[in-house]
Structure formats: C-alpha cells, structure tokens
C-alpha cells in the first residue's frame, strides 16, 4: 500500500480524509474475488482497473457523510446512519459511475437499483454498506472486532442495523453476530442474490 496514509496502533480507529486511499485499497483487495465479482466484471484485469476508482469514490463519500472504522491497514467498515429515507446521494454519481465502469455500467446500475428497491424504509437504522478484510487476514477476527465495536455503540443508542450479505457464507457469519435474514433478492434476472439482514440489540 505504498503512497497511502496508514493508521497505526491497536484497535479500531475512525478514518478521515487522508485515509481514503487506504480504505480504497482494502475494499479493492477484499472484494476483487468476492461473490458478485465474476458477474459484475468477468475479466479480473479489467475488474481490478474498475474497482480501484469505484471503491475510492465510495470510500470518499463514506468518510465525509458516514463513518469509516479501520483496524490498521487490514480491515474497514463503512457505516451510514439513515433515517426513514435510505437514499444515499453521491455528487454527480451517474456520470462518475459511467466513466469508471465503462461497459460494465449496466450491471453496476442493476445492483444499485435492486439494493435501493429492497432497502428498509420508515425505520431509522445504521447501514453497514461494506465490511472488508484483506484476504490474507480474513478469519483472524478483524471483521468481528469491527462489528463488536459498532454494535456496542448501537446498543447504547438502541439503534438497529441493516446490511446486505453477498452470499450464504457471509450471511452465516452475520447470523452468528445476531443478524436475522430477511430473505434473499436477485440483483438482476441473470444475476446473483444479495442477502439482506437486520440486527437489533435485544
């Protein structure tokens, strides 16, 4: 991760603007071979080219308008506190997404539309947009540490949480942390499914 601003020290830290490249790198590495990746962009070289600026755009927005928790240079969680309306607006998003994704644009749009359609409304909640751990550090408890850190705050606030797991394995992991499945939905007629989940502190 040459050229990025690292976060040192044990435990969970809040990322700020200087850490956007770090967060982008974690997201890119964690999701490059994720459940949705082959459907989104079958060619790995092209996928890597698209993912870096795509995740940088999302990381920058989350740092400014949400919150990003980071553990070292290995793991991150992007959260938003949402009210009755789950809409998240990124400035000039349509143009920027088209410029970044090129021929893959329709599939990114399909995922966006499906996620927006199925997102719970009328229930203020914390939204976990992404939880990412570098491939070499997965299974070491970093994701759990990020969840536990935020869940402790949400418990004090008596605030529920929502996420979309990308596959059955991820869904099972979140169920172990208390998330309840809401029933999968397809991201497109020919696409994979996302697994929406809801968490409460009691």
From TrEMBL:
Q: Which residues form the N-acetyltransferase domain?
A: 49-202
The protein's matches in Pfam families, at most eight in alphabetical order, are given as: Acetyltransf_7
Q: Which InterPro entries match?
A: Acyl_CoA_acyltransferase (IPR016181), GNAT_dom (IPR000182), Trichothecene_AcTrans (IPR052523)
Citing just one GO molecular function, the answer is: acyltransferase activity, transferring groups other than amino-acyl groups
Name assigned to this protein: N-acetyltransferase domain-containing protein
**What organism, scientifically named, is this protein from?**
Actinoplanes utahensis
